[in-house]
Amino acid sequence: MQLWLEKQVSHVGSELFQLLTRMYAERLQDLLRKTWKQARKRFHYPELPAPQMVDMPVPWPAMSIKERRILVNTNFLRKYSGELPAVKLLDAILTHGLAHHAVCPWDLKTHISLFHESLKVAGNSALARFVTDIFLDAVVDYYCLQRGWTAIVPVMQKTASVNSHHTCILLELYSYAWKIALQDVPSSLLDSPTVEYLAEIDYLDRKNWTRSIRKVARALKAQGPNVTETRSYSAPLMGYHDIRGVTAREFSDSFCELAREIRDPQAFSDVFSSVTRAYGKTTGGDSKGKMGHGLGREVKASTFFYMSLAEKYRMRIRKMEVKKDGALYPYSHVQWSVSDSFYDIDLWNSMGKILPPLTVKWKKKEGEIYSSRERIPDCMVLIDSSGSMPEPSRVLSYAVLGACCAADAYLREDASVSVYNFSDAPAGNRKLVIDSRNRMEIYEAICTYFGGGTAIEIDVLEKVIKKKKLDIFLITDMEITNLEKLIKLFGTLRDIRVTAVYIGNKKGVGRFRKAAASMKHVSIYGIEKPRDIMHIVLGQLKEYLHKK
């Protein structure tokens, strides 16, 4: 009997505990909705997804951000709600998260740029990431404290006993700069001159953020491993700032914008490599100069660099002449005779009678096409990647950029693009892509670099082209071993428009220009120095594409 009663009491206790847990969760959800509304008002109602309560494995950190959504750690609320009201904890968490969206880093590009600046001083990825986390939190906390939103301060004070260098450093900084009293804080990590130096930095001066974060990195690096070694310490109060928390679209757009700003493939690759070393492997990519997050599959950083620049220089393609479509349409009437077909008789205008003097038939003509789709042919890009051409992964190759821009123009019109990247092609140094609309596949083929000699497989080109109606874009220095055969091939392709771009003024240029002088379908553009190829991409080539 006693055992039965104990089981009943235990069962009732379990149900009561589940009921109280549900009631507490519902109360937290209600507080979350109300606090979110108030916090959004401070930042003029940004368009962000509503926050969510998440049961993280441990009660630290307080939050994380994934795809712009704030995820609140319920275990953190349970642990510290006895020391501070839950509404105060939520206010601090949501205000801090919203400030990161509205103020700093604002977007992934800013985050990456700040990290790279800190890396220049820190010298290693782990310290650079530690500095970046401190700087990003300092900026948003300064922004909030300046406006009287001080909810973060008591939360930091109550959680200062947690072994987090990040939180302790920020508390020392705020204590000096904002005269905030420290409570239950472990021994000081920074000496007084360092705290004063950090407090003099204007964290809200956005124009000087790159210089400011270098100052922070320099100051913390000077403190030695006792401060900068964080492997055995807890995460920051509000969590790490991880690039993998952004959307795939934002990831791709941010690196595109960064590539256009840097304009140096080697520097861009260095930035990406440092980011992957510090923040781990991206989705579908690795840490060896390749990326995959948001791109569908792994891609080299140098390829992504040229793809990004090509999107900046959008081209419109010259319209093709109106063509016959092969179909016959009624055009006018003629007298019908008994030897003519009955199918062409116009019974209405023949008054319903089949009698040669009265009966008329339709005279038909071939129709014409005015559809924009038919005006844009497919394209074949021929690009020289021999040893005399610049290596696209090390320096900005205007040849590769021009080819990518031309391919991009056709892809935007839903045309397919073929690529023949060649060096010493008969020896196997070539890459061929046929009739593709896959941007990544096309750009990777264009950006491939072989080095070595220069020769084209004419028979391969003939098989690919066959009787296709397409445009050809050739870019080379004209030092092609079998150039005469290529010229002869172009001479037979009278229905195909050819744009040839040559670099420098080597022997083959004169031969090609002389032979192409009689070819009306071949347009030639030359440059005196590699820099001039940019003008061909943006000026002469664009003029050709618009030429009527």
Question: How would you sum up this structure, described in words?
Answer:
The model is unreliable at 1-5, 282-298 and 537-548 (pLDDT under 50). Helix 4 crosses helix 5, helix 11 (248-262) packs across helix 13 (301-312) and helix 18 (483-492) packs parallel to helix 19. This protein has 20 helices and 13 strands. Strands 10-9-8-11-12-13 form a six-stranded mixed β-sheet, with helices on both faces. Helix content is 47%, strand content 14%. By secondary structure, the protein is α/β, with parallel strands linked by helices.
Classify the beta-strand content into a percent band: 5-15%
The biggest sheet, with number of strands, parallel, antiparallel or mixed sense and barrel status, is:
6 strands, mixed
Derived from helix and strand composition plus strand pairing, the structural class reads alpha/beta
User: Over the alpha carbons, how many angstroms does the gyration radius reach?
Assistant: 34 Å
Overall body shape: elongated
Question: Helix count, per DSSP?
Answer: 20
* Cα-to-Cα separation, first versus last residue: 101 Å
By DSSP, the count of extended strands is: 13
- Mean of residue pLDDT? 80
Largest sheet, spatial ordering of strands:
10-9-8-11-12-13
Quaternary arrangement of the chains shown? single chain
Helical percentage = 40-55%
User: Would you identify the regions where 5 or more consecutive residues have pLDDT less than 50?
Assistant: 1-5, 282-298, 537-548
Structure characteristics:
548 residues; 6-stranded mixed β-sheet; 3-stranded mixed β-sheet; single chain; alpha/beta; disordered C terminus; disordered N terminus
